[in-house]
Amino acid sequence: MMKRDYPSFLLYTFGFLLLWEWLRPVEQLTETDHIETFIFFLILAFALSFLQLKWIWQYSLKFIYILYSINRIHFEEGFFQVSWFKEFFADLIDNIGVIAARNWNDLSNEFRTLLFFILLWLMVYLIHYWLINRKQIFIFYFMTLIYITVLDTFTPYSAKAAIVRTVVAGFAVMGMLTFYRIIQREKVNTEPTFLRRWMVPLAGMIAFSVIVGIAAPKAAPIWPDPVPYLTANNDKVPELDARDVHRIGYGTNDSALGGPFIGDKNPVFKYEANGKSYWKMETKDVYTGKGWLTSGTTPISFRQEDLVPVYSLPKNVETIKESARVLTHVNYNYNYFMYPAGINKVLKTEPLDSEGNDFQVDTTNERISFYNHEKAPIVPRVFTVEYEIPKYKAKDLVQTTRYDPTSINAKFYEKYTRLPEELPPRVKELAEQITASKTNWFDKAKAVEGYFGKSEYTYDQKNVAVPDTNEDYVDQFLFDTKRGYCDNFSSSMAVMLRTLGIPTRWVKGFTGGDFLQYSDETSGVQVYEVTNNNAHSWVEAFFPNQGWVPFEPTKGFSNEITINYETTGNSSNNQQTSTPPVKKPKQEELDNTKAPNDSNPFFDMKRIWADTKLFLKNNWQRMILLLLLFAGVAAIFYRVRGKWIPYFLLVVYRFKKKDDNLGAAYVALLQQFDRYGLKRKENQTLRSYARYIDSFFSTSEMTRLTVIYENYLYHQTLPKGTWEESHELWENLIKKTIA
Amino acid sequence: MSNEQMNPMIEKILVNIEKVMIGKRDVAELSLVALLAGGHVLLEDVPGVGKTMMVRALAKSVNANFRRIQFTPDLLPSDVTGVSIYNPKEMEFQFRPGPLMGNIILADEINRTSPKTQSALLEGMEEASVTIDGVTHRLNKPFFVMATQNPIEYEGTYPLPEAQLDRFLLKMKMGYPDLHEEMEVLNRAQKIPPIEDLCPVIDLEGLLTLQSEIKDVFVDDTIKRYIVDIVNRTRGHGSVYLGASPRGSIALMKAAQAYAYMFGRDYVLPDDIQYLAKFVLSHRIILKSEAKFEGISAEELVNQVVARVPVPIKRLVR
Fold this sequence. Notes:
The complex is a heterodimer of chains A (739) and B (318). Chain A is of the alpha+beta class and 739 residues long. In chain A, 47% of the residues lie in helices and 14% in strands. In chain A, the strands form 6 sheets. In chain A, strands 3, 8, 10, 13, 17, 18 and 21 form a 7-stranded mixed sheet that branches. A 4-stranded antiparallel sheet of chain A has the order 4-16-19-20, covered by helices on one side. In chain A, strand 19 (535-543) and strand 20 (547-551) form a beta hairpin. Chain A is flat. Mean pLDDT of chain A is 81; it is low at 233-244 and 568-599. Chain B is built from 13 helices and 11 strands. Chain B has helices at 8-20, 25-36, 51-61, 77-81, 115-127, 162-165, 179-189, 204-214, 221-236, 246-262, 270-281, 289-293, 298-308; strands spanning 41-44, 66-70, 82-87, 92-97, 104-108, 129-132, 135-138, 144-149, 170-172, 240-242, 286-287. The model of chain B has no long low-confidence stretch (mean pLDDT 86).
């Protein structure tokens, strides 16, 4: 039987943690309330079991707690009133009848609560039995894992953190139980230090594997997510084979474009603003010949009310500040924010998590995502965006005539002008032909944009081809089919501009939608509704002095950007500035932006916590690198410890005068010999080991020292001056290992 | 252990024994250990290797009353303990003490006699007294039995039960002498056996003093722990049907005390335990039949166990 010691406390704690994992999803997935009552019951039951109270106390305490909880949850009368108990008792009798009749659905809530308590009681007893008597927990642990993973796969419950917790607790408890099983089988008596020597490597291994597990890249599931199949009968159409008829709307997979669409008038979101604007969801930078991909992900966390770290307009572009309030429709189930180009801040997001939210922007594709504190995606329902509408000046726009490595980062330029090698040359030829008379990038872009206005190009959602394996999506549209919708037009323009060496990217999102009403009579704020039919794609081209400028090649659409064509010069005659092409958001910048409106930054724990998290998130790679470096240095020190420890020991023990030091010094000497390579077998007595050492160094000092130590250890005698006497012997021996 | 300074008195006894016994110093040492610890010895070996000579030399050296009992199947308990005989002259029963009433007794081929007689001897060994016709007779002090048994012959023997084997402090083998020793034996055999000329080097009083001093030999808790660890391991070993009892632990400690004393130490070392474990524990263990078929002997097993138990090299943490 185990005692009330620290290890068994640990065992019970881990048992409790494992059982808790079973309760967590219950709270999220079912309508069970008052989950803390049950958790507290678990704690109580485990504590009683650990304290080994008499069974009568254990039973009565638990029983009183159950009654009290039922009273608190289900009855309004006080606990000490008899009436509720009578009622409960009558209910109990009724329910037993219901059970006998197998009318499971008629069970009352009170009775269900009682049954749940009894179930928990049983589980606690079982875990106690497994831990203490059987010393085996694998089956329960395995079931816990299955439970969590199945829930994670088939329900909204996210087991991202749960799986880590379970692995830690489960392996810790199994490791400890293995220790106890070995002890039991081998019938060895153990010292307390024994367990510690087992636990330290165990904890180390668990920590190591968890860190590796978290840090390691995880492959996406190789099977399709089964949930969409299960929920396939509603409107949320999974993105399946590109050859199928799609329902129009925003989706994230654009690797295979083409194919017909059917319209969908279901609303996506509404917004209140002073005018219509296009709404961006994301941008893509890699054209594959069949569709668009993102070259990678570079997520950066930011806080609500901070500047969103996406590309912002250069200072020399005049802007008008605007804001819009967005209300997403219930059917919208992405955790991404839609935003107008020139976004500054996301504000007043709902639903907020009381424990803090996580806003992330992927600077590669400019997608802004929303998570709760556990990193589970959350669909934003209401939020406000602050943005700036640029007012371009035509004479600034036309300044760029060619690629200049001083104004555009070479890597950046290469990324946004890259094209697949299989792209037919006639695309480039056509682009050059269209823009033959133009000299600057802006005019060239305008020419290409205008080219699609020709009557031979038709906007069509139905009769749209999908490129064959050896066909190019853009080439097919430009020269063969000439029929298509926004994806065809925008991709074609983007690709053609790239053939001319103008950096472009492909933008996805929604058009401005339909005007619905004024939000109220006086303000003049307009409400627009955006439906799935408004899903759209367009092009942004990069001008070093102007930033990303949107273009709208699709027939029948227009994106109102303000371009001032006045030619009378003013101060805006600036040269192509050498601003870095993409603003690299840094932690410091984020900090600076929030500083002013922060009244007492030192006492705001939440803020500090959020800052820390942000810092960790943005710097974790660097920190891991540092950690690895430290570990490496420590490892090297450890490897060569045989070289430096003897000096260290010599210095330390030189200043020790007490006779007691003999014990520690002798043990240190044994360890030093061990490092030196003269290993003592566990069953070798000190005397025979001393003879071995002495014959190795051809001396008799070790035997002499050992006799003194034996006297100290096995006889408990320590004559005065022992250490002084033996110190020289000891030093000589240590020095032998240095030589 | 040989580089240690022996207790001078014991050294004298051993030298005396060596005058007649060639080689076999270890057996002599172990016999002395048993004698000093107040225990008894079971010698297991074939005839003719000098068992009797060893005991007689030991008895002579300590000036003890030496008796020898040759066990045969028809030996009766009264032949061992003694018998009351009616004396017609005095008109009463008179007790005639048996061979058990000596100090040092050689019980030769103990497994040849019936269990009844064996148990009479073993009772005497355990209780240090015998009861005849309702009268309890104390045995002499010191009282030391050296029993021998022949491991080769099984026909017509009554093997000692485990419970009785437990009464012997040590069990050991004599072994054959090596080449030079045996030649020396032949040399001496040409002369008159020197055993008659052996002089005592210590009297019984002195022996009793030695015995009482041994009880004061210090056994540290680390050593006790080490003993218990070893004994415990024999209980859990896979090849063992029945491990050593707590009496085994006590025996190991007592033997170690005597052994330490013999080498002039007043405290016990793990080395003592390691050396003695085989002799103290091997006859207290019953092996599983599988292990026996595999040819594992109890001695080997004890050595295995000792090899697996770590030697204490630090003070116990309290």
